[in-house]
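## Example record

The block below lists the input lines for one assembly entry, exactly as stored, with component labels intact.
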Amino acid sequence: MKNICLYFQIHHPFSFQTFRFFDIGEHKSYYDDLRIEREIQEVSTNYYIPTNNFLLKLIHQSKGQLKLSFYISGTALDQFLAYSPKLINSFRQLADTGMVEFAGGTDSHSIASLAENNDEFVDQIYLNKERILQNFGQNPKVFVNSDLLFINQIATSVGKAGYSAIFTNGAKKMLQWRSPNYLYFSEVQKRLKILFRNEVVSNELSRLLGDTDTIGKPDSIKQILNYLYAIKPEEPLVNIYLNYNSLGGYGMDNKHRFFRKFVSKIISAPSVCLSLPSEILERYMPVAEIGTEVPVCWKKGFHSSYYPGNNLQKEAIKHLFKLREKVKSIENQNLKIDWQYLQTSDHFHLMDENHPDYATTESNSGIYKSKYEAFINYMNILEDFRQRLKSEKRKVKSEKTIQKPIHFNQVKRKPVI
Amino acid sequence: MFGWEFPPHISGGLGTACFGIVKGLASDKNVDVTFVVPKTHGNEHSANNIQLLSADHVSVGSQYHAEWNPTGVSILEVNSKLIPYETPESYMEKYQVSGKIKTETVREGQKIPFSGGYGPNLFSEIYNYAVVAKTIATENQFQLIHAHDWLTFPAGIAAKQISGKPLIVHVHSTDFDRSGGSVNPDIFAIEKQGFEVADHIITVSNRIKNRLIEQYHIPSHKITTVYNAIDPEINDNHAIKNRKQKHKIVTFLGRITIQKGPEYFVNVARMVIHRMKNVHFVMAGNGELRDHILELCAQYGITDKFHFTGFLNNGEVTRMLRQSDLFIMPSVSEPFGIVPLEAMQYNVPVIISLQSGVSELIRNVIKTDFWDVHAMADAVHGILMNKTLVTSMITEGKQEVSRLSWNRSANQIRQVYLKTLFNLAS
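Predicted structure tokens for the full assembly:
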């Protein structure tokens, strides 16, 4: 039996607006709220809600045969909650079918896994677990790191945080001669299983879905099935990981028709089925251990310099995580939320012009003319955040010191009365 | 090749560019260059422009450049008072007083369309130069004429008419850039005529190319963009400077004219000075807006941290750049702009306006719109505050600049030559 797992990723960052150094200490918002609102409403009406409804119908029709899993980043969930609550409900409906699983991640699609100290990373993992439980009533089994980034040290932290499996990209660099279509376990954390995204099939499927001209033709379904049939019969597992927006947008009806046909072909085939990652984990034993010290992630034309990044990125990350202790020591919720959003990996991708996100991501294009401007903008925001932290701490201290004399006076007065 | 200045006697980027191009071309054994210059600035006082018509063609190549002895380049000198970046008005001011304005080129003077009271002498100079060009064209052997900027266009056209050889004009700037929009119709006419007569046009950036297409209605297939370059700096041991000085220095370098955007520099200075200590702004260069800028500084109350150096010569420019922590070129309209490249060579981070040709070529600088003083001030603050940013910009910028060379530009120019000759032959 060959198991096919379908994963869909949804992530939207809180992108920054232009933040000059004049704005430091002026209580200006960090985020480009208007644009974020517009984008979320656009994707939710033209992409996610119709596709969710389509999948819901398909799940009911397929009578328990169609199974999918989602990775939704915490920042995306926050944005849906604020600008399109309907969408959250729609995802809940999917979760209620029992055929949809939600994977966990870092709560804000964070780069915390790159910090020197893994405390923040572990915190982030627990935060996200809680949130998935709250929103969808599920305890996530599989961990999906931001951009599917993986190195051995990440495996250690993820295992400690209680996950039994991590999902990453089946890059040749890491697998070498091995096939991505088996279950592995980590060489540093024996309990932690590793699932690999099948690059060939995933890329081909997303290419077909992106090509709105040919998607309606019967050939395209044959093409993708041929890729699946080409996989050796003894290999038990094919992980297909896509961006969820590839099922929506322009030519959506054709895409849905294509997807329906694709699913029905798989269901009707004798030795193939769709499975949930948690079922895979129960059903199969890992075949071998695997690990890497060279970062692996999911990006076209991946270059090892994306992680840990160029000097600018390293500097920004270093300065960001210096503030962790201070953030821990305060209670102010606004600051805590900003602390989350500041960690989102997208901000750092903009500090590298060679990074594919730099030019391709539509929502980011045109904000910065070079990586240097992205860096300056980020550092300005970070400086503002640092000053707010400082004044918050001072406030907390002064509140404590004010309380004391009042108490003292009261004590003193009592005998007089 | 017709130019108007040649190092070391230069007053702007043009001389550097001509020098680089000639040097690059000379390194190719298949190209022989005859470079025609008007009399240089320094010798002008004794010059008498009457002799223009019978100008002796003196080869002065070895005299100018002891360290550089090219084969295949000869430099011809023509007595003339021409200097670049001169407006007819300023030309009048300077030379009318000296009383040497009467020329005997009445015959040529009649060609000037607007000869009445509006700086006729600059124009007669240009046409005198053209007359000499005719003589040169008849007396020398060549295949191709290459003229740099509008002052030499009539000369190039004249040489083309006499010899029938193809003319290539090289556009380093247009009057739209120099005047900041108030275009002199006479200059415009000369430029347009030059562009139309030319067999091919070389522009220093796509910005200028588009300007030619839009404002002068020149078909785009006739234009090729060849970016300027910079000489690799050999004796630069100043690695990452041992700048121990407490004060940070932000530099503006160039003529203080509308084109260079000095006002935006002052506005940036005001914003930064009011929020940061230990920053000093230096405006190096001279120009007609200097007094205005000085007044502006006084008005903003930043004169204690805003300094003027006056005109700097080559060595002083180098020293100034080396001392700087940041170089800004806020030009309103800069056809190319070589100075940022020099600054990058000297390990200085650079901010340039998007309205400059050089911004098409380089990546490791911060680019803003010239009017966006907020963005510029923010970049200044960011660079002065963050060491990692500076080292990243410097090292990557230097690498980038080291890949440029005049030989590459000259090679592209040679391609244009070959194409033009080929087109004519076929």
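Chain B has two domains: 13-229+406-425, 248-402. The CA atoms of residues 249 and 324 of chain B lie 5 Å apart.
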